């Protein structure tokens, strides 16, 4: 049955009083509704042509595809035939919905938001790598009266699309991109999809599919905002001693970042947010000494959250000296090119699945061992910027800022741990409200809003300081646009200290006693009560730094990576995969 988000049963009898009352009640009842694939017949009747006035009351349509109960022999993964059956079911449901809505074209719009998701109960989160595809999505009818499309996925970070009492099946990247083209009136595009964790072979497939899609997708001229989020479901759980695959080789630059750079420029995006694996070519895809053509000329707001691990198989951060005094140094090199790369269980032959299960079991055991390690920093120890990686990234970011004449705010950051300690670089244009943390090096004179500002927060974890070359590039980012150098505000310690024995996890007792010890914590980003005690208010570029008190400001969200838990799985044996069959009864609403 159709569901009202907040049922108001007492209003229903009032609709019988008169036509005026009926219209008033319907305006409330049909403002926001939830339907499943089983409700499509009723939905079509309720909003039929003879009741077309009801369509104008609709502001949010939440469509949920309820897949049939899985009959998979294995409770933790699905075979190809089972995934194809899910694709077929979801495809029919989405096609029926779009065909119904296609009959509404006579009604002018846009006026409502459409959310599409495939929910699954929390108790049955057994298929994290079974991505659902909508087949032939490129031939779906366009829906010009829909003002915004939101696709709920397990990696979804958008507060207006995900329901926190539900989890959703992951959508295949090609589906996410294809559906976007069918909403020509939307001004904001949200692309969220999950990367398949440690399954490097599937990750490569996704990167190729994303690059090809970005080269083909044509956004509407109405689009002004793009959110692009592609993260690992296990991102925060990757042990820092692991070697990573090189997903860029044999290219010199990351082709995905370069393609995304051109895509954003081609569509004159004004507000761009990204979370995922980021490389310098996202900001500056040019070779050394190659002259850049003007790009991102319409950009006003830019925010990028980059993962600790880069696509070229290297880490942006390195171990602290404190860690290296207790543990052997981890490898900083990517996995060899001839390393065995797995597809998730259920992909390929029965033997492939058996190998994948053994590999997943080994990862699970390794994570358990890490969690039981008495030293909490034994597997999450990368907190000092790796100059060889961070400097090119920040340099390219700064060079890109100088290309954007309309830019008001640019922010690149990384959350070093789940407690919200961020490593942040932020640029704010003249006249744009500067929420400068009190622990930075800006004096009262430098608070003049007529000046452009660069705020650098190296967080509590490290005394690292950017090189003089990087600082000079940052000072010059505003010369082309505003004719003056930017003011640098930074929070860092002495570079020669390199953390010493004081690096490591934040310690509340040490924090509270720092004033009594009389150290120089004020200058070194240490743990004084005044500066570190209220991390929510002052700790780097937190939400409040880009938050209230600024009428012109935009939302700067703090993202949280999706839940993922490794699970030991019994070997499925050598049973051959069953043949795919397209037989079955036709689906009707």
UniProtKB/TrEMBL annotation:
Highest taxon of source: Eukaryota
Disordered as annotated region, ranges: 326-347, 489-589
Start-end of Acidic residues biased regions: 494-555, 571-589
Name this polypeptide is given: F-box domain-containing protein
